[in-house]
Every structure is written in structure tokens, then in C-alpha cells.
Specification:
The chain is an alpha/beta fold. The chain contains 14 helices and 14 strands. It binds flavin-adenine dinucleotide. Flavin-adenine dinucleotide (FAD) is lined by residues 25-26, 32-35, 37, 65-71, 90-93, 98-99, 108, 166, 169, 210-212, 216, 226, 251-252, 392, 395, 404.
Length: 438
Amino acid sequence: MTASVPTRPKDVLNTFRVTDGVYAIGVQERGVTLYNQQVRAHNLVWALTELDQTGTRKLGRVAVIGAGAAGLTATAALMSCREDAPVTLFEKEWDLCPVQQGCDGRWLHPSLYAWPDWGSRAPSASLPILNWSEGRASDVARALLDGFSIYCQKLAGDRFKALVGVHHLQVNAKRKEIRFIGTNVEMKGPFFSQGDSEGGTEIFDTIILAAGFGWERTNAFNTASYWRNEQLAQPNLTVDRTRYLVSGSGDGALIDVCRLTIERFRQDTILYELFGKSLDETEEQLRANLEKRSMDDSLLDYFASIDQTLFEHPKKSLRNRLRKDTAVTLHIAGPDKDKPNDLQDIFGPTSSVLNRVLIYLLYRCGAISISRQSLAEAISSAHITNDHVLCRHGCDTERHLQLMFDDYAHVKSVFAKMKNRQAQHPNRYWTPGYFPTC
Ligand SMILES: Cc1cc2nc3c(=O)[nH]c(=O)nc-3n(C[C@H](O)[C@H](O)[C@H](O)COP(=O)(O)OP(=O)(O)OC[C@H]3O[C@@H](n4cnc5c(N)ncnc54)[C@H](O)[C@@H]3O)c2cc1C
């Protein structure tokens, strides 16, 4: 931990602060994972509770906006820390944890994106609130919802209220006010029944923004959201080879490239399959070498330097299992037409080290084509049909926030600062046993 990382509740709370009373979880952080968002939710509730107990800042009536992993964790943590705090949960969709629910094709692991860090292969999140272990995204969503229902049954009482289908929600950050139209629900175990719809304006003492990052940008290609089920990882049941183009350089794009190019690809087993017995030793060497580098460095030159040693065996293993039914172009140009990204850039900090390793190995096996042309040119020169173009260009977070705040001009600069600071470290600030478990 570096000296600049805050550890006092007041300083930790400041990293989430939009205005006094309004706090946002991870919305401007880089490298967002479900686990990191849950750790941040724990940290925020820990800081709020500590400051409330010392009389520094009143927790009072709390609103949580968004019932994804972060919002559910924050709500359950509040219930567990404070017997009396009234909490209202607002969810735009018609169910809780709607993003990962039913997603059978994507794998979630709590810390694999921190690989090769120590312990990053551990299968359990080991969290006090809404714990889970690696699995299909649909199974993880189920674990979160089952866990949440236990908190509701044991601790919610009359002080908890949830609204779904909240199709109009406006936050006024200055007044700590939420205007909404939504439908009340009554939790019955892991499920709930629908109550009355209501619209209103309410003032809260504390507003927690856990509304995620907004819609993924699809560049008019209608790429399904990352968490919707599709069949990319399954062999084509046609004789023809199918051409795909994946545009982007974040983890979403790189994972889709792996699914389209590696036979029987599974995020949970690929490391073991490629590195075999040398996995522990490789990790150790990668850790030692990566520690000496800046997080912002491109790893292309470093990977080239270990190409004949650490990567020799995994390259051989990978060559054996390249898909024969697909041809894949990775489009890396990025949004700046005048300065398209080059190969170095996709090995920069826009993705996890694990996915950068996989893409490097694929590139060295000649399993992908790389394009720096404009998207239109790349599609036409590789003869790709529009339904085989996958745009993974991240989320339009600015627009998302703009639509949520009716005084966005008042908070815009705070969100810009959050983005620059990257201060919501997913370190655990609470002490073991701080959150009573259900
Ligand atoms: C392409 C892509 C790939 C990813 N891959 C991974 C991965 O491999 N592993 C991983 O751990 N994470 C991954 N993530 C990140 C992951 O999606 C998030 O970490 C995770 O969803 C938890 O975040 P959350 O609860 O903060 O937000 P979300 O899951 O987005 O939940 C936010 C909730 O708020 C609701 N909401 C939004 N706006 C409003 C509003 N105005 N009013 C009320 N409710 C609202 C939404 O409906 C949603 O239920 C990926 C993300 C993307 C975009």
C-alpha cells in the first residue's frame, strides 16, 4: 500500500464524495470488476458508519440507486451495520441484479483480473457481505440474490423499501433530493411480489449512487451487451469459415477475441491449460518483472523479451487449439481518427494482464488479424457482415450521469476529478468481523 492511499474513514469517504451526502461507487474508476465494486461498497458503508458513530456525519435516511452487485452489497452492509437506518433501494429494471442474471456464457472470477498478483487465482471472494465464488455469471447473480434475500428476511423489518421499474429518476445533488416514478416490491425470500406504483420527491440524508456505468456504446452495430447470452464460443454448425471483427481494446473485446479464436475456451481453466506445471514459476517471474514497471506501460516489449522462454510452452499449447471455423480481426484504432492506436496500445493499461497475455500469444500464433483502419474500412476490407461486428467500446458514463442528475452542471467537475484521481482503491479498510454476517 502506498503512503497516499487513504485509510481514515473521513479520507476514504472523500474518495466517494460527489457532494456532502451524495456518494458514488466506482463510477469513474478504471479496471472495474464486480468484486472491486463490492469491496468499494463495503468501504463506503464502513466509512459512513464510522463517521455516524463518532457523530462526525449523520447517516440518517439512506437511498441506494441501482440494485447491481454494488447496490445490493451496500444495502445489505447498511442493514448489517445499523439496526435502525432506513434504506430505500431504487432499481431501473424490473428485477434485482438484472445485468448478470441468466448469463450462462460468461465466467466471473473475483480476482483473476489482478493476475499475477498473490492470491489472484483464489476462487472465493471471501467477502463478509454477499460472498460468492467463481462461476458462470448467472450463478454468481444467484448467489448475490440468495444472500441479499437473507439480509432482507432477517434485518429489513419496516425500515427497508425497494422500488423496481424506476423509469424516471432524477437526483438533485445540492438538495439531496430524488424524484422518481417506480413500483414498490415486497421481498418474499429471493423473489418479490409487485406492489403499488408510486411517484414522488423525497429528501435523504445520504444518497449512494450504485447505478453502474451506463449503456455500452455499440457504434450503430447493435452489439448485444456483454452480459447477454450469445453463441460466439460455440463452433459454427456450417461448413464455411465465419469472419468476425471485434473492435476495442478493453477486457470485453479481448475476451470476445479469445472466445472466437480458442477452441473450448474457458476463463476458469485457460491459465492451467496453457501454462501447465510452469504456472507457479511463470507467475513468480511475471510478478517480479511487472513490479518494476509503471502500471501505464505497454507490455508488448516485455512480452517479446520473454517470448522464447516463459511464453514458449504456452504458445505451443495454444497453436494446438486454435479454432478452425472462424477468422478474426481485432480492430484497435480507437476513437481518434487522426491518431489511431497501434499495437503497443492494446498492451497498455486498458485491460487486465491476463487478457494481454492471451492476446499476445494469439498474435504470436498468427491467430488474429489486427486493423488500425477506420471501422468502416476495416469491415469492408475484411469482408465482414454487420451481424459479425462486435463493438466493445465501453460505456457512455458521462451521458448516464447527465441523465441522472438534474443539477449535473453542479457535479460535473467532481466526477472529472474522480476520474483523474482514481482514488477508490479496492483495498479492504474495515477490520475482520466489522460487518456482522447473517
Ligand atoms: C464489456 C464489459 C465487460 C465486463 N467484464 C467483466 C468481467 O469479466 N468481470 C467483472 O468482474 N466485471 C466485468 N465488467 C464490469 C461489471 O459489469 C461490473 O463490475 C458489475 O456489473 C458490477 O457493477 P455495479 O453493481 O457497480 O453496476 P451494474 O451491474 O451496472 O448495476 C447497476 C444497476 O443500476 C441500475 N441503474 C442504472 N441506472 C439507474 C437509474 N437511473 N435508476 C435506478 N437504477 C439504475 C441498473 O439497472 C443496474 O441494475 C464488465 C463490464 C463491461 C461493460
